[in-house]
Specification:
469 residues, 43% helix, 12 strands, disordered N terminus, 5-stranded parallel sheet, 17 helices
Length: 469
Amino acid sequence: MNIHSTPDTEFAGNFTTSPGPIEQVRYACALGALTSVIAIEAAIPITHCGPGCATKQFHALSGISGYQGGEFHVPSTNIGNKEVIFGGADRLDELIAATLKVMAAELYVVQSGCIPGLVGDDAENLVKSYQRRGIPIVYADTLGYRGNNFNGHETIVRAIIDQYVDKAAGANPAKRRGLVNVWALLPYQNPFWRGDLTELRRLLEGIGLEVNILFGPASHGLDEWRAIPTAELNLVLSPWLGLSIARHLQKTYDQPLLHLPALPIGARATATFLRAIAAATGLDSERVEAFIASEEKQYYHYIRDFAHFYSGCTSQYRLPSEINVVGESAYVLAIARFFVGDLGLNPGVFVITENPPDEERAGIIAAFRDLAPGVDATPVFEPDGHKARALIKAHPRTGEYPIVFGSTWEAAIAGEIGAPLVEISYPVTDEVVIARSYIGYRGALQLLERTYTTVVRQSTEENPEAAGL
């Protein structure tokens, strides 16, 4: 958890998937990262792709990921047979010009999809022609067949930094003490990203930092993006997502990088997280400790009351003793550490679904060591939902009461092994998520509420006498 220097690597990474078709895939194509642009206040994506691609990507990520909603006004070329034969650059030129006339924005992000990539449209040079006229516009190569929306997100962020932020920064931008860039959750893919980023801002400002949160309602929009080069530190809160961005900023603006692989859930992890970033930025330790003490006082008051249920209802309800998690690595790791390290559950099966780059996998595996003193786990990288289900079903358990944290698709396997299901990963169709957070002190309490409400409800449905009904 120390600041470290790392070499710059190719940001797209090397992605592998299971051979053949994938059942119940847990991500979108690279074009789906248009949601990352939508998550930036006053930015508009312009998509150069086939008919309906942009609409399908947005509604897949917003609609079946907790019904998040969001502003969806995305111009698209909707190219067809004519453009496949003759090229679609002229149609894109026409669309960009029309968009500039009718849609006001501070930044426009042009994204190419599969068809322009296959036919060889030179969208990049077309966008450069607009840039030379002073238009705030960037180009991102998000061809759907080159990867998923995770590396599409990193492609878009790099494009905005290199083509927009860097021009605004000028030469040798002065660093602002106490300002931190935060690279964490993938907008819309994670159903709780809005609430989690809001809570991250509250925590970091609580110990005296300024924060560029960059996405969502907790961000100040493009003002924060333009301030990226002036930050004194890049904080990566993920096993891998955002690392290539932070490494690029380290090389470009000589900004140090602090990589904390696990999102903090609960008092123990959150205090460790706050102290680590306080040490990295040289904050006043008295202020940091005062904030931690204030938060912990409230947190443990609620935990004390929860403990009456947790210790006194084991005979009344089937409280889980084994945890299984299926989802993106950031949440799988965070939830595993909280329930194994803080609540003492035994590790079951941990399935990582977003297909991270090969070069980052060893680091992800290492992050699952020491979930609790002397307790390690080894995650499985598997984007195929059918295979994830088989792994959970085949896991040996004797005398264990399992619980499953995953997506709506895990309902079937949870039913097969008699486990409650808490939906925490894409797709989420049985939950409506607005501003909920599961990280930090407050988020951990919400996670406990949601988890044990599910446990109690299932127990009473199976045995009404457990609730005295």
